[in-house]
Automatic annotation (TrEMBL):
<feature type="domain" description="PAS">
    <location>
        <begin position="160"/>
        <end position="190"/>
    </location>
</feature>
<dbReference type="InterPro" id="IPR000014">
    <property type="entry name" value="PAS"/>
</dbReference>
<dbReference type="InterPro" id="IPR052016">
    <property type="entry name" value="Bact_Sigma-Reg"/>
</dbReference>
<dbReference type="InterPro" id="IPR003018">
    <property type="entry name" value="GAF"/>
</dbReference>
<feature type="region of interest" description="Disordered">
    <location>
        <begin position="264"/>
        <end position="283"/>
    </location>
</feature>
<dbReference type="InterPro" id="IPR036457">
    <property type="entry name" value="PPM-type-like_dom_sf"/>
</dbReference>
<dbReference type="Pfam" id="PF01590">
    <property type="entry name" value="GAF"/>
</dbReference>
<dbReference type="InterPro" id="IPR029016">
    <property type="entry name" value="GAF-like_dom_sf"/>
</dbReference>
<dbReference type="InterPro" id="IPR036890">
    <property type="entry name" value="HATPase_C_sf"/>
</dbReference>
<dbReference type="Pfam" id="PF13581">
    <property type="entry name" value="HATPase_c_2"/>
</dbReference>
<keyword id="KW-0378">Hydrolase</keyword>
<dbReference type="Pfam" id="PF13426">
    <property type="entry name" value="PAS_9"/>
</dbReference>
<dbReference type="Pfam" id="PF13492">
    <property type="entry name" value="GAF_3"/>
</dbReference>
<dbReference type="InterPro" id="IPR035965">
    <property type="entry name" value="PAS-like_dom_sf"/>
</dbReference>
<dbReference type="Pfam" id="PF07228">
    <property type="entry name" value="SpoIIE"/>
</dbReference>
<protein>
    <submittedName>
        <fullName>SpoIIE family protein phosphatase</fullName>
    </submittedName>
</protein>
<dbReference type="InterPro" id="IPR003594">
    <property type="entry name" value="HATPase_dom"/>
</dbReference>
Length: 869
């Protein structure tokens, strides 16, 4: 009868083997089958390797539990691949050969095993039966003297908490009330996760929700009491179901120092058997098992677990030395209350009693007599500890330690045993570390190349800030904040905040708004910043006390942004500040943070420094570009005419498009302005070229037209004087095509037009019957010849007539060898009968845009005059 199932699928890549081992180990640990874990993990590793490496297919791993033991199935998608079953059954397999080794191990370790074929897959399975125990006995220990018994309070309290399928508390006994200060009424219906300070163990992803879903779980974590303090506890969770089949979890909880009341004893070696001897005398196999993990984290985690078991300890840890051997970085722990020290760095030599003996084996009989001797174990309840160095060719590469809660547990004999095993593992660890460093360096280089390309692809300041944050979160940090310094000497301004959980962003921003920004002194360089964590801690404490005063549980969300325990946990870890330096001054600051109990790896900080240098230059370039664009656009806008005047009896519309990014004014220009009572001037022109140089001549022409027209000069005289002014510019002068006219609205309807078309595309007149014809004749352009003989042409616009004036950006619109031209424009205008001036201008613009697929390369101006019917 199957009582529990677990399954997972693994891709055909090498790292899947380590992941599959972890899956089987965690599953059997959760089911309480600790005595079967090692054999199951070894067999799974071999069979998954056969599937994903040798067969080259994905692998399904299924764990099936029954009352007698567990069955593990490994399914691949290569049914036709032959297995050396006959050789295995006859025991003739070559032990030096890779082929069939997994099946040989199955034959040696499993209670039963076999292979099942279907048309599409192959299933290799093995079964491990639990060892039978005497009736009524699960475990027993020797008679101990009174002083050797575990210490507890006078009145031992065991909290019994029941949690339903939604992880909400349904039962809370009196001992739980005494231990944590909450009454049953305060907690029933609340999620247990609101009270739990859950540790994240390196190498596993098990959280409180996953632990509550397991059939059985046992271990340490913390629970927040009614005063906001975290109480370390030891708990045993058991998943049960009631008569209606409804599942729930019963949690037995004691103080962590009283864990002996609930703790299940680990499987001990047979009497007189040395762990090294059981591994065939090879300390390397005893320490890391066979086959060894194929990744550094897996190797380190396996090492500390085996080292703890080898010396029958309660905890173990492994630190790796930095490249200069001046610091040790925590990389793997087991048996400690949490992973808060992961990636923490401690000096190798800081005086006696700390890590001064890191290069030599050391034994501490009781840490209580030497406070601070091993900072990693402070506050963990560990007393005895043995620490040995990892050395390769005389160079310190790391440190391995095993600790026990019992004082005096270790002597020089254990130190020698651990050192002998550490000497064998040191080379494997160093090789895996160098492989990881090379992989990280390649990844860092690829990351920086991609970051540089992204940062170089924009000159927008806000987009640059967003890119900086998005590249750091979550690759380098859990959250980040970007401060900018608008002017030299000014205070940093919080400009952008990002967290990998979007729901935390507002809370972190509110918190940072209340914190003084980091000091922008360039000499401070990269440095830790404790202000956010301190502010978060104080805010969370005030929130907890306020909730307590109101008789409520502390909320993870809090009452307002930034006030909740969730925000405090999000910024409660290590925070570092990196200056953004460009052109020898600090233009901003980049703050990177980790959540509570987490720290940065050294290689991550080095990568963040490289990124900050690139980001600073990109941000400064974006700032300079924004300033230049703002100045340019401000000057250009000053060249545009004011709003169009309202002319009685005439409908006027203008559309203007300047070519080039960031340009608001180019070589084309227009104007409509009053000359005198009852008379209006209008103009549309095109200066040779585009951009700011052409815009400068545009300003000269537009202002000169207004001035000369209001002096009472006629159209030809106005253009002749403008021509002289342009020629006086000398080398800066540019020729201009210009259509200038005077508009005289008539009382009886219609309007009288007097126009001069100096080299400009001819204006087109549309009558209500759809006829399109030029309304003027061409004359010489301006800015070329000194003596011009220009003349004025008169025409009358009747009700319903439309006058269309455009620049050559409209008529010379091209698609390959095709051009819109005067005829194409006339066709477009001919379809506009009955339309308003605005509708005519819009239809002409759409026709120009649709004529070619690429963006227009020349300035465009469209001016329409219509006499309403």
């Amino acid at each position: 009868m199957i009582t529990a199932r677990a399954a997972a699928t693994f891709e055909p890549v090498g790292r899947s083997v380590a992941t599959a081992r972890g899956f089987v180990r965690d599953t059997l640990q959760g089911w309480g089958l600790t005595d079967l874990i090692e054999d199951a993990v070894v067999l799974t590793s071999e069979l998954v390797t056969n599937a994903v490496v040798h067969a080259g297919t994905s692998a399904d791993v299924r764990c099936l539990r029954d009352p007698e033991g567990v069955r593990v199935e490994v399914v691949d998608r290569h049914p036709e691949r032959e297995l050396p079953l006959a050789e295995v059954s006859r025991g003739r397999l070559d032990l030096n050969s890779e082929g069939g080794r997994g099946l040989l191990l199955c034959a040696a370790l499993a209670s039963r095993w076999g292979v099942d074929y279907t048309a599409t897959d192959k299933c290799v399975w093995f079964r491990l039966d639990q060892q039978a125990l005497p009736v009524g006995t699960r475990s027993a220990g020797p008679v101990l003297p009174t002083e050797a018994l575990p210490v507890s309070d006078t009145r031992v309290r065991v909290a019994v908490v029941q949690v339903d399928r939604a992880d909400s508390i349904t039962a809370w006994n009196d001992d739980a009330r005494e231990l944590f200060g909450y009454t049953a009424e305060q907690v029933v219906g609340k999620p247990l996760a609101d009270l739990a300070a859950w540790p994240q163990t390196p190498g596993t992803g098990t959280g409180i929700a996953e632990a509550l879903a397991l059939s059985r779980w046992e271990g340490s974590y913390g629970l927040c009491d009614s005063e906001g303090r975290t109480v370390p506890v030891y708990a045993c969770h058991l998943r049960v179901r009631d008569a209606h089949g409804e599942p729930s979890t019963v949690c037995l909880i004691v103080r962590d120092q009283e864990r002996a009341i609930l703790q299940s004893p680990s499987r001990l070696p047979a009497h007189g058997t040395d762990p090294l001897d059981r591994a065939g005398g090879d300390p390397l196999d005893a320490l890391i098992g066979s086959p060894p993990p194929d990744d550094l984290d897996g190797l380190l985690q396996r090492t500390v677990e085996r080292a703890r078991d080898m010396l029958d300890g309660d905890a173990a840890f492994l630190l790796l030395a930095t490249d200069d051997e001046t610091e040790l970085e925590v990389r793997a722990t087991t048996g400690l209350p949490s992973a808060r020290q992961r990636f923490a760095r401690v000096p190798v030599e800081t005086g006696s009693g700390r890590y001064g003996s890191a290069r030599m084996p050391s034994v501490h009989e009781d840490l209580a007599t030497a406070p601070g001797a091993v900072p990693l174990l402070s506050g963990t309840g560990m007393h005895a500890v043995v620490i040995v160095p990892l050395k390769v060719e005389g160079r310190l590469t790391g440190s391995l330690g095993v600790a026990s809660e019992t004082p005096g547990r270790y002597s020089n004999e254990e130190a020698l045993r651990l050192q002998f095993a550490a000497d064998r593992i040191a080379l494997a660890v160093e090789s895996a570390r160098l492989t990881e460093l090379e992989r990280l360096r390649r990844g860092s280089l690829a990351f920086l190349v991609e970051a540089s390309e992204l940062l170089a692809g924009t000159l927008d300041r806000n987009q640059t800030l967003a890119l900086m944050a998005q590249m750091t979160v979550p690759t380098l940090a859990t959250w980040c904040a970007v401060y900018t310094i608008p002017e030299p000497g000014s205070e940093p301004v919080l400009s952008y905040v990002l967290h990998e959980d979007e729901e935390r962003i507002d809370g972190i921003k509110a918190l940072l708004d209340r914190v003084d920004p980091p000091d922008p002194d360039i000499d401070l360089g990269v440095r830790p910043w404790t202000a956010p964590a301190d502010a978060a801690h104080n805010t969370a404490l005030r929130s907890s006390l306020r909730s307590l005063a109101l008789g409520e549980l502390p909320s993870a969300g809090g009452g307002a942004p930034g006030t909740g325990l969730g925000t405090a946990a999000a910024v409660g870890g290590e925070t570092v500040v990196l200056p953004l330096i460009a052109r020898n001054r600090v233009i901003g600051l980049l703050a990177l943070g980790k959540p509570t109990d987490e720290r940065f790896r050294q290689d991550i900080l080095e990568l963040a420094e490289d990124l900050s240098r690139r980001a600073a230059l990109a941000l400064d370039n974006a700032r300079l570009y924004s300033e230049r664009t703002a100045i340019s656009q401000s000057l250009q806008r000053s060249l545009l005419p004011p709003e169009l005047p309202e002319i009685d009896g005439v409908d006027v519309e203008v559309i203007y498009r300047a070519a080039g990014e960031g340009n608001e004014v180019g070589g084309d220009f227009y104007d409509v302005f009053p000359i005198r009572e009852g008379a209006y001037g209008f103009a549309i022109g095109d200066v040779c070229g585009t951009g700011p140089l052409a815009a400068a001549v545009t300003g000269l022409a537009r202002h000169a037209l207004r001035l000369l027209a209001r002096e009472g000069l006629g159209g030809p005289a106005v253009l002749e004087r403008l021509n002289a002014a342009i020629l006086e510019e000398g080398p800066r002068s540019r020729f201009i095509t210009l259509l200038y006219g005077e508009l005289w609205p008539q009382p009886e309807g219609g309007a009288l037009l007097k126009m001069v078309c100096a080299g400009h595309p001819l204006p087109l007149r549309l009558t209500p019957d759809g006829t399109v014809a030029p309304a003027a004749s061409p004359q010489p352009l301006l800015g070329v010849m000194d003596d011009l003989e220009l003349y004025e042409q008169t025409t009358v616009l009747n009700p319903g007539d439309v006058l269309l004036c455009v620049t050559d950006g409209v008529t010379e619109r091209r698609e390959g060898t095709r051009m819109l031209g005067d005829d194409g424009l006339a066709d477009v205008l001919g379809s506009c009968t009955g339309m308003t001036a605005g509708a005519v201008a819009s239809r002409v613009l759409r026709a120009v845009e649709r004529f070619a697929s690429d963006a227009p390369s020349d300035d465009m101006a469209i001016l329409t005059l219509r006499i309403p019917e």
